[in-house]
Amino acid sequence: MPKGSPELTASRREEIVNACEKLYKTMSFKDITLREISAETSFSRPSIYNYFQTKEEIFLALMQREYEQWAEEVHALSTEHGTMSAEDFADALARSLEKRKQLLKLLAMNHYDMEEHSRPERLTQFKVAYGASLDAVRVCLDKFFPHIDRERFIFVFFPFLFGVYPYSVATEKQLHAMQEANLDFKLHSMYEMVYQCVVQLLGGAI
Question: What is the overall mean pLDDT for the chain?
């Protein structure tokens, strides 16, 4: 770890993660390299190794940040509302995830690679953020829908999130292949998919 204040270290790490996020909006995971990430920062590529050992660790930090921000937003639902209907909660959860396109993309495409090629301490930090998102949803369920099977909801909903991105985003190549295969397939918005899933899982509470 480089010498310097904790504030400088945090600032440098954030700059690296921001650079990765910027590139990931237009490039694929496999095409992004540490060299390209460093080109988007204010310091050299060797300096990145002071903060992250692999490209995967940078992406994992990006996903960790996404989970932290999402967990904070979901937790706020439990403090800002006395009650919520199933439709209102589904709407709020769908809107919160609609803003987390990067999270859903990472879950669908590169989750395993990020975890497999990150140091244990980095993976633990990520799991803490992931756990916070689970807890935030649990708190909402306990408050708004105490009679449903909370763990069943968690068991279905969180794995479901891995499939939201590929069912809502497709490349021209994928669309052409589906047309050639005469595949009856319709893309749905991220909002629509999450909303319908949550409403169905809360069916007994409506």
Answer: 92
SS3 181: coil
Fold of 1-52: Arc Repressor Mutant, subunit A (1.10.10)
pTM: 0.90
Query: Which two structure tokens, joined as six digits, stand for 183?
Result: 């595949």
Q: Is 4 left (phi over 0), alpha (psi -120 to 50) or beta?
A: left
199 with 86: CB under 8 angstroms?
A: yes
Percent share of the chain, pLDDT over 70: 97
How far, in Å, CA of 96 to CA of 73, rounded? 7
Task: Report CA dihedral (164, 138, 133, 199) to the nearest 10 degrees.
Answer: 20
Return the domain boundaries, the chain. Answer: 1-52, 55-205
Q: Which residue has the tokens 């595949």?
A: 183
CB 129 within 8 A of CB 71: yes
Q: Please name the amino acid found at residue 177.
A: A
What is 55-205's CATH topology? Tetracycline Repressor; domain 2 (1.10.357)
Using alpha carbons, list the distances in angstroms from residue 112 to 12, 98, 174: 26, 22, 23
